């Protein structure tokens, strides 16, 4: 059995594994895809102290750092079930898709999240070539350019306000007949001179020139008319889905499916901690996920020294 078992190999999981291993305890990390969302990222310019790096490079560095220590790395392994310890301080069980079962005195959940996609032609092809999901990450790349934000919920309207301060022009595109964001955000948005709002619009295609995005096609849901908007970038803000479906019923999740944690990273299940985009942490970023991973590992270590047999 492990002392600390980390599920998920993104920035949060890698950080937790390094912190655990440095305590000299038996540490394991199981991940479906080591590197996580970082693997899908091009330029990273907000990882403090590293002015510029690229996702695949950072993913390799994450894995190399973990490999520096005596950590049992189980890549390409998907967890499917979490089972609580039978008694206080006992072993928590994690079942894997391949039928194996891992046991550990403490578990750190860091399975991350994925952005909901529009699912229209061109979106996948121009991902990272104009199609973006994170305004904090990619906003500055569109300085002086024209962008659209898809989605009129809180995250879409926040993104539009944020981007309007950086880019030349923002078009907010909402499927419904009205925006769903908080009134105070909508008021702020409507006060900005370089923002257009289009409602009742179903995005149907991302246009590009083979290299990068050039526009968006949408259908006016009121009269069926098709329209083109010329653009340099499209920020899709229709939801961030935590990878927590496998935990439903076993651990407390928020209405959005995020693992509910306290400020120490503790979850509702004894001995189980969580970190990163899969949790209720307010912002989803690499530096934040790494900090949360170390917090969760230190809290789990604290749990171990308090529950081990004398
Ligand atoms: P993730 O990176 O999502 O990692 C989750 C891990 O869990 C993966 O290894 C995954 O395979 C694994 N996993 C999932 N489910 C299971 C399961 N059931 N069993 C086992 N393993 C599982 N942030 C920045 O700070 N700067 C940026 O420039 C930036 N750009 C971004 C660009 C894009 C295109 C995207 C998508 C995100 C970007 N982000 C950026 C956000 C950043 O990538 C995330 O905040 C960060 O990766 C979260 O780390 P995490 O470890 O919580 O989760």
Automatic annotation (TrEMBL):
User: What domain of life is recorded for the organism?
Assistant: Bacteria
Domain FAD/NAD(P)-binding, residue spans: 2-293
Q: Which UniProt keywords apply?
A: Disulfide bond, FAD, Flavoprotein, NAD, Oxidoreductase, Redox-active center
Q: What's the cofactor?
A: FAD
TM helices/strands, residue ranges: none
UniProt keyword DNA-binding, yes or no: no
Chain's role: Serves to protect the cell against DNA damage by alkyl hydroperoxides. It can use either NADH or NADPH as electron donor for direct reduction of redox dyes or of alkyl hydroperoxides when combined with the AhpC protein.
Quaternary structure annotation from Swiss-Prot or TrEMBL: Homodimer.
User: What family is reported?
Assistant: Belongs to the class-II pyridine nucleotide-disulfide oxidoreductase family.
* Protein name per UniProt: Alkyl hydroperoxide reductase subunit F
Source species of the chain: Novilysobacter erysipheiresistens
Q: What is the lineage of its organism?
A: Bacteria, Pseudomonadati, Pseudomonadota, Gammaproteobacteria, Lysobacterales
Q: What range of the full-length protein does this chain span? A: 212 to 521 of 528
